[in-house]
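Pipeline run #58 for the internal structure catalog. This entry was flagged by the ingest filter as a single-chain record with no existing model, so it goes straight to prediction. Upstream metadata was stripped on purpose; only the residue string is passed forward. Reviewer on rotation: M.T. Logging verbosity set to normal.
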Amino acid sequence: MTITFPSMSLADLRLQIEAGTVPSPGSASILAFLDLTRAALGSQAFHDPGVLVSEQAFSAAFPVVPEEALATEFGDAALYGRCRDSIRRHARLAGAWPDDPYTLLNQLARDNGLLSINRKVLQEVLPGIRLRDLTREMALVADRDLRGTKRNTFRTSLATMDKLRDDPRIQATEFLGRENIGPLPIYRDGSKPRFELPATLAEVTGQIPVGHALHARRAYELAVDFGLFGEDGPWPGWSITIADATHYHLAASKQVSASTADLYLRSLLSLLRNANPALVPKDVTADRVRHPKRYETPATPKARKSDKQLASLPDQLENEVFTYATERSQSRKKTQTLRRVLRHLTKGGIALDDRIMLDDAMSIVREQCPHILDSTLRNYGSTLRCFLRHTERLPPWDMLISGAKDMGMNGEDLKALSRLARQAERADPAIQPEDIDIKAARRLLLQARQDGTAGKTRAGLRLLDGLRGSLPSLLPDAVTDSVTMERELPDRLVSDLSAHATATGYSAQGVRARIVAARALYRLSPDKSLFAGTIECIRWLELIKSALAIHPKELAVYRAELLRLADQIGTPWPLGWKALQSTIVQAGIPRADNPIDVLMEVAMTNDLQPWQLDREWAWVHERSLRPDLRRKWTRAVANFDALRTLPGLDECGLLPALPLGPMPRVGARLKNAHFPLPRSFESALEGENKQVLEAAHFLWRCLRAFGDHSRGEDPLIATLVADETLERIIQKQTFMSAQSAQVHVARIRDWRKSRPVVI
């Protein structure tokens, strides 16, 4: 195909666009504009080659600011302007004006998914040189003086030109010469030639950490530049000294950042040490170079801050402190703080062999240390409380509240229990926790009614009943539930609720909490007949809503437990999940470690049984959650995988063939991690940095989108990282810009090069 540009007319331009020989991103619109031009200017002007003979002739026929008559022929000035701009651009694409090849080249680059040709950089670097006259020798001379972004842009433009030389439209216009420029040399530090590692060092790169292997060659180049050894490697008998390593680190810090200089030093030492241990003495380390003061021998030993001898504790008390610190794994600092507080108390005359009121103890400490800060005093109080509770020296109510805190009680429940403790201590005589029976409870309720706090006292007594099974040393064995003045929950219903909670995995304490909550609902419901029948037939949710509307304050403490009860009873359990739950409960796994509720709720949306779950299902769902729920899901998946350790569970066929986890670390999810990597590929990438992992997930995401692989496949790593696969990803991917995709692919290539044994 030959195009004679001087004879091109608007009619010729239309024929070429219609035939597809001119690359047009929107052929329909330009054809419409040309038809409008023919109607406005007439057939003679439309076929006149002089209109497109030059850009000046075009501007004369189509002025930027049209006369009113010309604009009217096109409809209006705005439509005329759009028509003019489109025709001018397509004339450039058709090569009508040979002095401007960039429009056609960049349009073809966009059509082929290539990076654009930078007109500004090429004209600056190659002034007065036409693209068709550019040779490789010219490009080498121009490239050698370039640096940074300008060099990269220049090389990218040349690479795009090479890829477009064989295009028939470029050959027809002769915008480019027939000789390829080809790849330009790889330089370092501007224009220095790059050299590779000697064979003796290159063969050990697979034995050092991946991060060191990736930077080993660059670290070696710098060592040669700094004069540590030659390009062929260390001389016979040479070994690096601390002075050499320090000089290397300082010189590298002048060229790169401090952190990168540290990395290069570690990479160099690791490379040399693995090649020949004699090259790096044991006293030459990166840490010693970075922190030399750590390894300096002090001229004189440090003097003690004070020679003051502290008063010693009694032997029995010292033994108790030692035992406490050992059993509770207390730090040396906290143990010293405890000894200091006990010395103050001993000096203040307090007896440490009996129960101690914490407020009284802190008052004595304040007297001994009048200038102590409030924050320090609070720290002393917290430290002393832990010790007194461990040695059972706290008053009974304080021991009870501390035990409740350890069991996870907080918020309004803890306030209600503390309020009950104060009320019992103010009673005459004072009532201790172990003394609360039906008679004592009624005494407290009678006093509370007079004070207008009966509801709060009932709440405290209910919480006390819930603690009886967990703190037998502080509370009597009998469960009083003395605050119930109305009818009791039927025994049959109590038995059914207990059996259901036990089968669901609740502990004894959880079962008691559920019974107490159900009793409260039963007591506050006006129609007791609604509780007839089995627990599955009772409309729990309706009863809860009705009771909350009438008694919101009384049921507030039980609301969460009651709603949980309604949800569990109202959810049908598939056979697979029911069998797995039964196995877990029989194995004695606590409810906190039971993942069934969390996983089954999600699995039931797709009618999945436990053995039908897979890692991608767990992975995709985790990605859809907000951070706090991701933590809950991650724990559930980990607990689900831990079920494999139960004896005989694998043989039952209730679990999937492979584990679901691990899930991505919360807060560190990668942008392209839409699917889990194949197991073998993931294993090979273990220990790599975030950038390499992001690139790997991008690769897998593209291959899944292309349909090359599907869910659960584990292809060969060599197939995944093959050059033809990577090139196809660059050409076909639509997830990001071409530049970003090339960066990811380059990281995969670097990783592939660093792990030849694995590949």
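catalog note: The CA atoms of residues 71 and 77 lie 5 Å apart.
catalog note: The beta strands are 187-188, 192-193.
status: ready for reviewer M.T.
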